């Protein structure tokens, strides 16, 4: 059959005009002549439809010719033209696609063209695959096999770190993440394997997390499918690598997975469950025994749970989860199978060759509490650290409480191992953030071991451990905790959404009840460890350190304790005055004053904030100490006045100056000085605390009533003629919010704004700022509107250079 006729016939079946370079010899007149190219004719639409309907067997050879041209050994342009031709031919319907798919390996040749440098070839190859897969299901299976093989090839190549970088930074990464949800389990396994290898390079973690890999891997790990062992393994290893970063660790735990240390099967040999004790909840709560008598054949004595009254033993969801988790983990421990599966699956090592695994949160909580009861010191320390890391929300903290972790942790505070103590205190610190859990911690009589630990010499306890102990004490002694417990029921709904708030009905004597309970707690404290002279001296020594964070926490604890009058004498003996002086002489406050605003780097701004918090806490403590006559008789009034005045004019945040100003006013009042503006202390308080605070309220408050009250108070201060009051308003940026209030405020606010701005306009240096704030158009609008303030507006307008 003539080759020219064959090509023309194939072209007539829907192929565009193209030039094909034929790399074989065409017979002509019994001679073999080399032909480099053939021109194909363009046929009309009617010819295409006619020839597509033809089913001549001779057309098979024409299709075979173009499939041969797809081979990788052909010229790229030939391959491109061939795939374009086949794509358009395939649009003819099922019989055309069947003609193409008769030849084995066609899909592989088409897939190879997807990575062609030619956009046209890639588009045609993708279009041809789409057309084929939409009609020929057998070809779809072949295509899926190609996809699986391609990803498996990537899996092998991804061990090369350079190729990992290229994969992560290309469009392949989103596709791999998408393949984790593929219906074909082998495709999911291969995609998970590639991603697991990518996580071995920490530089890839950020891009992978942004691509959404953590939720997909977590779902694979939590899936309980028998045929997904490989998927679970690669997902676990990938998540463990990602979780080495603290931020990623939180993202993993938010998906319901918790890091648990692998401590070795030998460590669980010390586990001895109470097999014949009366059933109790994991947190130690005893289940009430029913009044049923012994069973006829003794089953009730052997199976103690038969004596539990089901109606009385109805459990909340959190307690039920704790019971189920404990039962499962204790069963595995008793069978010696608790780490068999995890040990074979987890090959990821953390620092100091400490291996970890990932478990669903219910199993993880029970496993960690179980490890706390073992004898292995290293295992206990690692479990306590994992509890601290996992306490990221109210749901997890409550889960640990219900699982009985609090009792174990409190008992381990006095453990001889430093690593155990550090891990335990860190866990209690994170758990005590919850108000409900904090009350449980307090009920376990934690004050005695905590105060004993804090009283150790400074060489034996680190700053970080001291800070965590102080955190726990602050939360236990927080008076607001009692208020929260009265008006809010911290019931957690079993999810990590937060609190289900239930307000208790209001009662006339509600405040009296809270006050009574606070007094009762203070009385208990008075007879306990917090009033011990050694402990109080230790807190005073912490005030004398140069660490603002520790100073703030020690001052907050002393503020709670000083409510007991018996403690004041002991604090005076411990030289509380020198401790307060040390706080007010913050090194950062002195150094920063020599720098201009633009010269303060971020680190020094952070130091100022920490110093401000410490100074504010110390000011509250000093204010309360001034209520006791025995302290007033010994205090150096002039020294504290001088120090607080220096703090007031410093650059600490405005919110931290409130208690400094209150303390200064109290010192001034007790010392018998005048309370008017002529008093230099009152003047400084007004200039450096009151005026900035009022301007901040005008700027940032969303309440028109608060803004109006602030502007009226500011007008009163300015109109009374205090020296430098107008300069303080201008330097604090008060002109712009005053102009805004003049435009949008109430009548009283507008009138007060006009009065303040008129006083400011008396200084020509403020004219530029007033005009820049847009005062001129607003004033003209007020004058033309003939509102009640139009005369004041006209007077201010005449003072400005318009």
Automatic annotation (TrEMBL):
The keyword Chloroplast does not apply. Keywords: Repeat. It holds the Pfam family Arm. ARM repeats lie at residues 171-213, 733-775. It comes from the Eukaryota. HEAT repeats lie at residues 172-210. PROSITE patterns: ARM_REPEAT (PS50176), HEAT_REPEAT (PS50077). SMART domains: ARM. InterPro entries: ARM-like (IPR011989), ARM-type_fold (IPR016024), Armadillo (IPR000225), HEAT_type_2 (IPR021133). This is ARM repeat superfamily protein. The lineage of its organism: Eukaryota, Viridiplantae, Streptophyta, Embryophyta, Tracheophyta.
């Amino acid at each position: 059959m003539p080759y020219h006729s064959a090509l023309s016939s194939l072209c007539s079946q829907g192929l565009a005009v193209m030039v094909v370079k034929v790399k074989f010899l065409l017979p002509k007149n019994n001679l073999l002549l080399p032909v480099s190219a053939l021109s194909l004719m363009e046929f009309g639409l009617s010819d295409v439809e006619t020839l597509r309907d033809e089913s001549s067997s001779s057309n098979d050879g024409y299709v075979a010719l173009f499939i041969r041209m797809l081979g990788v050994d052909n010229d790229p342009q030939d391959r491109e033209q061939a795939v374009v031709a086949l794509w358009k031919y395939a649009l003819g319907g099922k019989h055309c696609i069947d003609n193409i798919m008769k030849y084995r390996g066609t899909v592989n040749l088409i897939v190879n063209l997807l990575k062609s440098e030619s956009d046209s070839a890639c588009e045609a190859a993708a279009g041809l695959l789409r057309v084929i897969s939409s009609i020929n299901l057998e070809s779809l299976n072949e295509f899926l096999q190609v996809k699986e093989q391609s990803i498996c090839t990537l899996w092998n190549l991804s061990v090369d770190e350079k190729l990992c970088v290229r994969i992560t930074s290309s469009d392949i990464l989103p596709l791999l993440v998408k393949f984790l949800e593929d219906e074909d389990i082998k495709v999911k396994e291969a995609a998970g394997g590639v991603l697991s290898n990518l996580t071995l390079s920490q530089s890839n973690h950020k891009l992978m997390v942004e691509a959404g890999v953590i939720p997909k891997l977590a779902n694979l790990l939590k899936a309980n499918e028998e045929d997904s062992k490989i998927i679970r393994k690669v997902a676990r290893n990938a998540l463990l690598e990602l979780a080495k970063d603290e931020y990623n660790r939180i993202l993993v735990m938010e998906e319901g997975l918790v890091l648990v240390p692998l401590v070795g099967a030998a460590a669980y040999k010390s586990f001895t469950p109470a097999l014949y004790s009366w059933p109790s909840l994991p947190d130690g709560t005893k289940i009430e025994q029913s009044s049923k008598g012994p069973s006829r054949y003794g089953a009730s004595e052997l199976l103690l749970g038969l004596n539990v009254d089901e109606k009385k033993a109805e459990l909340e969801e959190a307690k039920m989860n704790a019971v189920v988790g404990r039962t499962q983990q204790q069963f595995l421990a008793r069978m010696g199978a608790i780490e068999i599966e995890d040990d074979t699956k987890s090959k990821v090592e953390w620092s100091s060759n400490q291996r970890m695994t990932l478990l669903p949160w219910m199993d993880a909580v029970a496993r960690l509490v179980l490890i706390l009861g073992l004898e292995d010191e290293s295992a206990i320390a690692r479990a306590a650290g994992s509890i601290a890391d996992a306490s990221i929300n109210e749901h997890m903290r409550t889960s640990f409480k219900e699982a009985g972790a609090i009792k174990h942790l409190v008992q381990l505070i006095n453990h001889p191992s430093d690593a155990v103590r550090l891990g335990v205190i860190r866990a209690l610190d994170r758990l005590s953030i919850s108000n409900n859990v904090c009350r449980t911690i307090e009920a376990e009589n934690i004050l005695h071991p905590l105060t004993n630990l804090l009283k150790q010499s400074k060489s034996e306890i680190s700053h970080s451990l001291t800070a965590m102990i102080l955190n726990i004490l602050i939360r236990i002694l927080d008076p607001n905790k009692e208020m929260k417990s009265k008006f809010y029921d911290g019931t957690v709904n079993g999810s990590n959404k937060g609190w289900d708030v239930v307000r208790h009905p209001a009662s006339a004597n509600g405040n009296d009840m809270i006050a009574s309970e606070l007094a009762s707690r203070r009385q208990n404290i008075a007879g306990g460890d917090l009033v011990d002279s050694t402990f109080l001296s230790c807190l005073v020594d912490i005030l004398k350190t140069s660490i603002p964070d520790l100073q703030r926490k020690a001052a907050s604890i002393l503020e709670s304790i000083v409510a007991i009058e018996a403690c004041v004498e002991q604090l005076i003996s411990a030289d509380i005055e020198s401790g307060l002086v040390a706080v007010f002489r913050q090194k950062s406050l002195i150094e920063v004053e020599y720098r201009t605003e633009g010269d303060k780097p971020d680190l020094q701004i952070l130091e100022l904030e920490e110093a401000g918090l410490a100074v504010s806490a110390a000011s509250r403590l000093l204010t309360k100490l001034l209520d006791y006559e025995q302290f007033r008789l010994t205090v150096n009034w002039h020294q504290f006045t001088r120090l607080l005045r220096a703090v007031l004019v410093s650059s600490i945040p405005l919110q931290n100056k409130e208690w400094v100003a209150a303390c200064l006013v109290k010192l001034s009042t007790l010392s018998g000085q005048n309370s008017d503006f002529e008093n230099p202390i009152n003047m400084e308080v007004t200039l450096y605390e009151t005026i900035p605070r009022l301007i901040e309220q005008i700027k940032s408050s969303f309440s028109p009533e608060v803004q109006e009250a602030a502007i009226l108070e500011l007008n009163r201060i300015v109109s009374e003629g205090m020296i430098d009051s107008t300069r303080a308003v201008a330097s604090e940026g008060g002109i712009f919010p005053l102009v805004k209030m003049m435009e949008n405020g109430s009548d009283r606010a507008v009138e007060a704004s006009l009065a303040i701005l008129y006083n400011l306009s008396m200084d020509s240096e403020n004219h530029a700022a007033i005009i820049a704030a847009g005062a001129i158009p607003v004033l003209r609008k007020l004058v033309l509107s003939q509102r009640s303030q139009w005369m004041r507006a006209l007077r201010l307008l005449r003072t400005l250079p318009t």
